[in-house]
Amino acid sequence: MPEAPHPTDPETARWQAVLAREAVPACGPFLYGVTTQGVFCRPGCPARPPLRRNTRFFADAADAEAAGFRACKRCDPKGERARLHAEAVAAACAMIEAAEAMPSLAALADRAGYARHHFLRLFREVTGVTPRSYAEGVRARRLQAALAAGDRVAEAVAGAGFGSESRVYEDTAKHLGMTPGAARRGGAGETIRIAHAASAMGPLLVGATEKGVCFIGFAEPPEALEGDLRARFPRARIEAADEALAGTVRAVAAFIAEPASALALPLDLRGTAFQRQVWEALRRIPLGETRSYAGLAAEIGNPAAVRAVARACARNPVSLAVPCHRVVGSGGDLTGYRWGVPRKAALLAGERAARDAGATKK
Fold first, then answer.
1. DSSP codes joined into one string, 115-147
2. Which tens digit of pLDDT belongs to each residue from 322-348?
3. Residues 234 and 171 grouped into a single domain
4. Active site residues
């Protein structure tokens, strides 16, 4: 059994992160060395934790190597193996992007220089999806671009690489989040009900389709909030529905004032497969907790996609319901927030207070 950390040890937080195998330590990034083995590891290394007396902590790989330690082969603390894998997968992704039809798994694996089963596992680890799912995402982007440019549906479907229109209509949510015709029309033919209200953080706007809430915005002038929604659905019919959305608006305003529990609402989320994957991961972050962008990327199985995760957070159309305010920088800094960093700080403080109050009652 590992030794318990001494309560006065200034590095207790790091030691506890090692024992808990925290991939993204709450105390900040670091590496640890094992003196009996001469290796250094990430805190999340799957190897059995060393004894505390045999453990040294380092700020980075350079410090560890300067002290005479070598990189662990299991957790790859220098990221060399991960870099090679990422480069191989990036080349495969480029091959998919450039091809008119989906390349075979054998062709992709040969291009990457791995056996098929090994390549498939690497591709999933790096991107979070299979090569076929990635290719479907490429086709979906091509289809979206063609429809937005005004191409006829049949031409756009063929140009994107789909065999027939029926394949797109079979699962419109998967490819577009709406029917091809609706995408081409910029939401024309759809009705979005909206309701304005006041909140503890200023003006509030909620928009909803028949399926659920598609937009939540706050802390800006009402006309700016409505302009944001209209930019997302430029040709949709927008109609006031204060009474119909009264309950939803009250729930959102109550959360802003006192975030005592998760904001559970029926949602109509429209985005790429990757964006929806990030948004679902955001919804799984418990009240009062945070994740770093790198940590969130790791959670969805795509550790190299930190910037893409940040972009998906920025494109989140339903703030609060999809809690992008719970994502912070690697050092714990609040970074940017669509509705202002002070409001992000206030939301997180309110959530932590509610969580701690709940724990005290128990």
1. -HHHHHHHHHHHHSS-HHHHHHHHHHHHHHHHH
2. 999 999 887 777 777 888 888 888 899
3. no
4. 41, 324
Contact yes or no for 202/220 (Cβ under 8 A): yes
Rounded distance, CA 42 to CA 341, Å? Answer: 31
Domain boundary (34, 49, 71) is at: 71
Distance from C-alpha of 142 to C-alpha of 156, rounded to nearest angstrom: 8
277 and 340 belong to one structural domain = yes
What is the per-residue pLDDT across 189-229, written as a single tens digit (0 to 9) for each? Answer: 689 999 999 999 999 999 999 889 999 999 888 988 998 88
pTM greater than 0.85 (yes/no): no
Neighbouring C-alpha atoms within 13 Å toward the C-beta of 253? 17
Q: Cβ(3)–Cβ(13) under 8 Å?
A: no
pLDDT beyond 60 at 56:
yes
Query: What DSSP state is assigned to residue 6?
Result: P
Element (H, E) at 218: strand 213-218
Same-domain status, 85 and 123? yes
**Greatest CA span in the chain, whole angstroms?**
70
d(CA 113, CA 115) in angstroms, rounded, equals 7
